[in-house]
Fold:
Amino acid sequence: MKIPQLKKKPEIKSCHNVDWEDDYSWVHQENILEVLKDSSKLLPEVKEYLEQENNYTEYNLKDTKDSQKKLFHEIKGRIKLDDESLKFKDTEYEYWTKTTTEGNYSIKLRKKIGSNKIEEVWNGDKEKEKLKTEYFGVGDLEVSYNDKYLGYSLDLKGSEYYTIYIRDILSEKLITQKIENTSGSITFSLDDKYLFYSKLDEFHRPRKIFRHKIGTSPKKDELIFEEKSDAFTVGISLSSDEKFFFITTSDHNTSEQYYFSIDEDKPEPKLIKKRKRGIIYSVNSWNNCFYCHTNENAEDFKIEKCDNLLKQNWEEYIAPKDEVLIGGLIFLNNWVIRGEKSNALGKLFVKNVKSGDEEELNFTNEKVIVPSVSLTQRDRNTDLIYLSYSSPKTPSKTYLYNLNTKEKKLVKEQEIPSGHNPNDYIVERLECPSHDGRLVPITITRHKKTKIDGSANLLLYGYGSYGSSMSPDFSSTKFSLINRDIIWVTAHIRGGMERGMKWWKEGKLLNKKNTFEDYIYVAKYLIKNKYTSEGKIIGMGGSAGGLLMGAVVNRSPELFLGIIMAVPFVDSLTTNLDHSLPLTVGEFDEFGNAKENKEHFDYIYSYAPYHNIKKIDYPHILITTSLSDNRVLFDEPTKFTAKLRDLKTDNNLLLLKTEMNAGHGGKSGRDGAIEEIALDYAFILKITKKI
Structure:
């Protein structure tokens, strides 16, 4: 089949007295944000090219059709399709969700406490059917405090412009006009007369909080807060003691908070602490005290406490620890629960309010685990919590745990219908020295029969941005590769917060290349220690992890057999220079400001994947993107693919697949998500010759 060719329209670009030619800049049309909302506005020749690439991908993967079907059923066979969540006890009702064998979306159920009558509050599949839409994204699903109203927000394109609806649960009739162009989040007032939401501006940034009186026109909605900085976005939440609303405005690096009482007739948000660059803080209230989770004078966070937000005499409640990330607090009447993270591993601690004693919650002998805690009821006068954990080889287990007696009862265990024996697998936690001696945590999951002699293929997953930590939790999908002698490795590289804030800072701005170096050094370490060999690694990353993939494959293509890049941030310089795009301005403290700062420009230019493609041999590459993606625009992977076709000197596969009706998260629905994984895995099986 003929290889697709995107038309070249050379354009000379210039910044800081540096000129460069971009043959494909025309793909980024001026009304690009309108295209995300309405695909009919896409340039016809771009649409034709994307369709050609889709056809080319399908043609080159036609021999994997059977594998895709097999993988789809295999992955789906590990999911308990007909399943129910644990119940949460509200004031008058118990609420829970369930999934069915036939459905793709969740169902929200409830029953009155003391009754056996079950009511269906929400059915995603029925709602999708009513709307006759291909893409169906649910942003939020909230029941009002009087249990009468259901608030829900929908995105029917994948562009993350959510429309909010409020309806009466019993009659199923809408009781207020729809509210369009929101971020999707819904917060009810406790008297159920109002809801709060954030509106998106022309650049898809939520910078205004409105109060909507239920039953009235959105045109009458009251603006209660507006963020003036283009870099900051806003959200609103209720305090743990349900006495205050907190408005948080932040970018990735700095935050500021306001509060107002739940019973204010006309909300007038009051500032808690004025923003300081690099300082992140979050205040909550409980039992007539305020708690502040902050990194001010505490790089990896601490928690302070005071009894008055007007005087703010803060005293230390949880002290900071070096390279140990201090998490937030969960309050019960008699207990305070919190988490910590270090070396990519989490821990949970519980404090007895009366005695002041604190101890770690130890409930498993496994070393590489992800623990979590959730509440059983809205009333905080209880000793009972849900305590869960999983590991890379062990499905999730949830216990009903009594904090007073320390008794635990297994109440839910993730079932793998097709069967799963954790003893068939080995999980290892290793550390690898990077280029500067910093030790990078690595989580390895492999089948016990896989030989460690260099013969195995290995999937190396990485992300490394925004302080996002990659948790070593359980994922049943991975075993379709692990069971075929492909070792799965997660590299906990800098740019995340697996080793605290310092780990993030060492992987952003003018330290961004540490992220790429860490990943490459992990790859070489795995080769040296016979987990795999050069040319047998499959690199995988999505979004900012796609930036990682693009950077490392330009730098060290010989390490890889293949690369999978999902919605990849590969034209990062062009995006950084365009301050009208949704995320750019808010990410100056993550990647830099190339337009205003020459040092930032030179640094980003030196690693931006699109600008550093070379005339060399590249491994097999599969790139996936979505036409309505508002976070990483489709033109980035489109341009990257076209330029890579021009310059690469090999005959390996280069495939671009564009979902024409999806967003940043790919297809909607359970089956859609599995289909995308099956495609990635079939590509891997093809290039590793395991089909």
Notes: The chain has 13 helices and 39 strands. The mean pLDDT is 96. Residues 670-687 form the longest helix (18 residues). The domain at 60-76+419-687 is CATH 3.40.50.1820 (Rossmann fold).
